[in-house]
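hey so i finally got around to running both of the ones u sent me last week. sorry it took forever, my laptop kept dying halfway thru and i had to restart like 3 times lol. anyway pasting them below in the order u listed, first the sequence line then the C-alpha cell line for each. didnt double check formatting much so if smth looks off just lmk and ill redo it

first one:
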Amino acid sequence: MIEVALKGIGKYYGARKVLEDITFEVKTGERLAIAGRNGTGKTTVFKIIAGIENYNSGQMFIRKGASIGYLNQIPCYPENYKVIDVLNTAFLKEYKVKQQMRELENRMSENDSKELEAIIKKYGEFQNTFELMGGYDIEEKLSRVSSGLKITKDFKERKFAHLSGGEKTTVILGKILLQNPDILLLDEPSNHLDIESVEWLEEFLKDYKGSVLTISHDRFFLDKIATRIIEIEDKKTSIYEGNYSYYVDEKKRRLQQQFEDYQNQQKKIKAMEEAIKRFRDWGTRADNEKMFIKAKNMEKRIEKIDKLDKPIMERKRINLDFNTNGRSGKDVIKISGLTKSFGDNLVLQGVKFHIRYGEKVALLGKNGSGKSTLIKVILKEYMPDQGKIELASKAKIGYLDQNIYFENEKLSILEAFRIEHAMLEGDARGILAKFLFYGEDVFKKIEDLSGGEKSRFKLCQLMYQDINLLILDEPTNHLDIDSREILEEALREFEGTILFISHDRYFINKIAQKIVEIRNKRLYSYVGNYSYYRQKRKEEILKTSSIVLSNKDIKNNKKYPKQVKNYSEKSSSKYNIKIRNEKIEKEIEQLESSIKLKKAEMEKYISDHKRLADVYIEKEALEKKLSLLLDEWTELNSQI
C-alpha cells in the first residue's frame, strides 16, 4: 500500500527555486533515506510531507487516516512539565480511553438498576478498544524506548524546559517512537545519541511496522536501515534500490554511463554537423539545390535530438590540507593516575593514557562518561584532582570543539580569517574558496552562517595553523557526507598525532588505528579500528557472561559441560564411544532444561530491558555450549 506519493513537486522561496521535480513513492513498511548535500532541500521535502510547508507545483498524496511523526522542531510544553510528562503525551488517546473506563467503573459500583447491563456492555467496548490501541503495553513500550535512548529514572524527573537542546531532541525522539505513527520522518535522528543508543535505534527501526523516511549523514546508520535511497541533486530526485553502499557504487556507475552516452551523442552530432558542411560545400560548387535541402533536413534532425546534458563528474568540494609543524616528540600525551570529580560526581578514576607520535586514536564512551572532560584536562581547561599529565614539549595543538565558538560573530568570514592569518585579501579569498566560500560569500557575517558553514570555516582556520597534534571533539557534526569524506582523506594523510571523539562509526573506522573506551570511569584500549573494537567487545561480554554463569552453577552445585574439542582430536581418550555418548546425552538434557528456564526468565523481565539483555546473553552462552555438544554427539554417533 502506498503511504506517501510525490509527483513533480516544485518549491520556491520568494524568487529562488529550491525544488523542481521531486518524485517518489513510499510504501507501507519501507525504510527510505533522503540523500544529498547540505542545502539541496532534503528538510524542505520533509516539511512538505508533514504539512509544515506548502509547495508551488506538482501533486502529493498521503494515505487517508495515516498518522505522521516528524522529528524536527522542539514543541513548547508548560514550564512544570517533566521529561516523563512529555513522554506520556505519546499516549493521550490511550489515557483518554482509560479515563472513560475509570468513569464507567465508578458508575458500575454506584448503579444496581437496569442501566447496569448497558454500562457493562459499554465498558467491554472501551476495554477492547484500549487493548487494540496497545494500552496494556504502555509500561513495556515506555521501558523499552527509555532503556534504548538512555532516558534514566532520574532523567525522567527533570524539568523538560531546563534540558539542553540535544537532551530535548532525544526526549522528543522517544515520544515520537512511542506514538508509533504510520509515517515516521526522522531528520538526523542519530545526532545527540551515543553509539549504543544509535545501534539500539537501528534495531528498533528495522522492526518498525510503519514507513520510515530519514535524513542522516551517518553512513553506518544508512547502511543498516535504508532499503532505498532517494537522492536530491540539482532540485530533482534519483532513486536507488538499495542501502547507502549500493547507492555510492550505483551512482558512480550511472555517472560513467551518462558520460559515455553524452560523448557518443556528441560524436554523432559532430558527424552530422560535418555532413551538413559537406552538403553545403557540394551544393555551392555544383549549384545543386538538392544538397542544400539535404543539409536543411539534417539540421532539423539535429534539432529534434533530445540533447543530453554533460554530467558533472565531480562537484565542488572543500579542499583540506593540514600544515604539520615538525615532530612533537615520541611520547605526545602521557597520563597516569588521573582522577577528576565535579562535586560528588566522580567522572574519571585512576586513568592511565599514552599516545605516541603519529597515532590516530578514537576516544569512545557513553554520553556523560567523561570523554569531553578528559579532552579538557589535556587542554588544561580543567585541573585534575589527582594524577600526572605530560605533553611533548614540542607539541603544537589544534583543537576543534563540538560547540563551535567564535570570539566575534559580527565579523565577516574574510575579516575573521585575516585577523587570525595575516595575508593579502586575494590570498585569503583563494584559501576560503577551497572551503566553498566563493565571491560574495566571504562577506557573510559569521552569525548568519548555518551550522555546516560554521564547521567549514572553523576547519579552514584550523588547517592553516602550524600544528602537529589534532584534538577533535565531534568533528563531523553539521558536515554533509561529501565534506566528511574529504575530512577523512585529509586526516589520513596528516603526519602528526590525532585524538578525536566521534559517534560516526564510519568515520571512526576510516581514521582510528586505536580505540580507547571510557567505561566505569577507567580507560580500556583496543589496537585496531571500530570494527575490530566491536568484535572484541562482543567476545569480552560473552566471556564475562560465561564466567558469571559458571559461578552461579558452582554456587548452586550444578554441573554443565565444559567446551570440548571435536571427537577426532580425542581419539586417544580412555572412555569408549558408547559411554561418552550416554554422558553427552544427559548433559544435553540438562542444558536444554536450563535454556528453557532462561527463556521463561526473559518473559519475566520483558519490561526490564537491562536485565532482559543480561539474561539473553546468558541464554546465548548456554546455547553455544549446547551447539558444541550436539556437534560432538553427531560425530560420536557416526562412529557407533
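and the second one:
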Amino acid sequence: MKAEAVKKYRPYAGVNLPGRSWPEKTITKAPVWCSVDLRDGNQALVQPMDLKKKLVLFELLVDCGFKEIEVGFPSASQVEYDFARTLIDDGLIPNDVTIQVLTPAREHLIKKSFEAVKGAKNVVMHLYNSTSTLQRRAVFKMSREEITALGVHGAEVIKAEAAHYPETNFRFEYSPESFTGTELDFALSICEAVMDVWQPTPENPVIINLPATVEMTTPNVYADQIEWFCLNMKNRESALISLHAHNDRGCAVAATELALMAGGDRVEGTLFGNGERTGNVDMVTLALNMFTQGVDPELDLHNITRLIKVSEYVTAIPVHVRHPYAGELVYTAFSGSHQDAINKGMALCEEEKNEHWEVPYLPIDPTDVGRTYESIIRINSQSGKGGVAYVMDKEFGVKMPKKMHPEFGAIIQSVTDKAGRELEPSDIWNAFDAEYLKNTRPYCLSSFNVVKRHIDNDEKASSAEIEAVVEVEGEKKTIVADGNGPLDAFCSALKNGLTPDFTLARYHEHALTKSSSSKAVAYIQLELADGVTKWGVGIDTDIIVASIKAVLSALNRAV
C-alpha cells in the first residue's frame, strides 16, 4: 500500500451529542427480531435460492422463533413473487408470524407487492428510497425536496393500496436507505414526512428502519446517530426504531449492540451474517452475546448444528471454523495452558455444582447450543498434559492422577512431534495402551491367587498370603509371599530376587466408567533404589488384579 493513498480518504464526521446516555446503559431484554435472510441474504448469493431452498430456510426461521420474516422483494422477480404466493396459498405461515416484503417507492412496484401478499394474515409493507448525500448527487441527481416527495408519494400509495385488502393486518415500515450516509436532519425530516402520511399511533406504531447500508465509521457513531434521532423525532412513542447494520468495517454486531443501548427497538439481520459485500449483522452472534450475559434472546438456537447445515445448504457459503459460537473450532483448545485451565475449570464446575457457568476460555456452555464436550480439547504439538488428561477422561473414562499427567503428556508430545498432525482420541488411547497396558516385557502376569486372608480385628492386623506365576522374559516363575495385604505380599515376592528393589510411591484407583463391563483401573507409581520413578497402569474386573498389573506395568517401564 502506498503511503500517499491514504490522502484519498477523510474521517467520518461525528455527531454533536453532548450528554449522550447510551454509554451508561446495558441490554436487558431482547429486541424485536426480523430475519432478512430470504431477501437481503438471498440477493447477495452468487446463485440465489430456488423455491425449494427458500421453503427449507423459512421453516428453519419459524422454528428458531422469528416472528417477523422478510420473505422477499416480490416486485423484483417472478421467483420472489411466487415464493410469497406459495407461502400464502399453501398455508405455510403460522398465525403468529408476520411476513415482510420490500418495495421501492414506485407506484407500479408497490401495487405488484400488494398483489403478492394478498390473503396473508399479517404483513409488514417495507418502503424504501435512498436518501444519502452521495447518491442524491451521483446517482439520482435529485434535491432533498425531490427525494422527500418520492418517499411521501410511496407512502401515500401504500396507504391507499392497504385499504383494498381489509382481510390483512398491515403494518408499515420506512427505510431511508443509506441512513449512515445521510445528513441526520434530512433523515429525520423525510421519516417524519412519511409518518405524517401514515399517521401512526402508540397502539399501531410505524417501523422506522435506520440502516447502516454501508458501515462507514466506528460503532459508537452509529449509536450516537440512533440516540440523536430518537431524541429529536416527534411522536417517538408511535415508532419502533429498527436497526439494520451491514458489516463493511467488521463491526456490525458491536454497532447494533450499542445502537440498542441508544434506543433501538428492533433488529433486522441474517443468520451468520450473510448479506451484500461483507454481510449483514449476524443475528446468531448477536443473540448468543445476549445469552452469555443472562438475557433471554427469545430465539431458539439450541441446535446450532441444524442452523449451520441449513444455512450452508441454502447459501452454499460455509460457516467459518472460527465463527463465534458456531464455528467448528470455537469450543476447541489446542494450547496446553488453555487446555489445562479448561480441564480444571470443568472439574471445579462439576465439583461445586454452581448454577452459574464459569469455565476459563469458554464464555458459553457448548451443550446449550447442541455441541458436546468431546471436542473441547484436541491434541496437537501445541497441546499440554492437562489436555491429554482431559481427552483420556472424557473419551475413555481414564482419570489419571495429576502426578501422572507430566509423564503421559511427554509421551503424547513425542507422538505428535513424529506424526506432525492433530491426534485423534484413538491415537491417544493407542499410545496409552502400548505404553502402559501392553508393555509386558520383561514381566508378565500368568496367574494370581490369594491363598489366605486374615481380616483385621482387635488382636491382629490384616494379612494375606498370595501365590502367583510371573513370566520373566518368557520363563514362568512361581512366587509365594505374605504381607499386610495382597498387593504388599505380591510386591514382597517380586523383590525377593525376581526384580530390582523398589518402593510403592503412589496408588490410585477408580471404576472405569466408559467400559461396557464392570472394570477398575489402578495407577501405581514405583520408585527404584536409584531414585527413578515410573507410573504403571492396570485394568481388570478385579481391583486387586488391576493393582498387580499396574505394578508390573511400572516395572516394565523402569527396567
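quick thing i noticed on the 2nd:
The longest strand covers residues 443-454.
anyway thats it, ttyl
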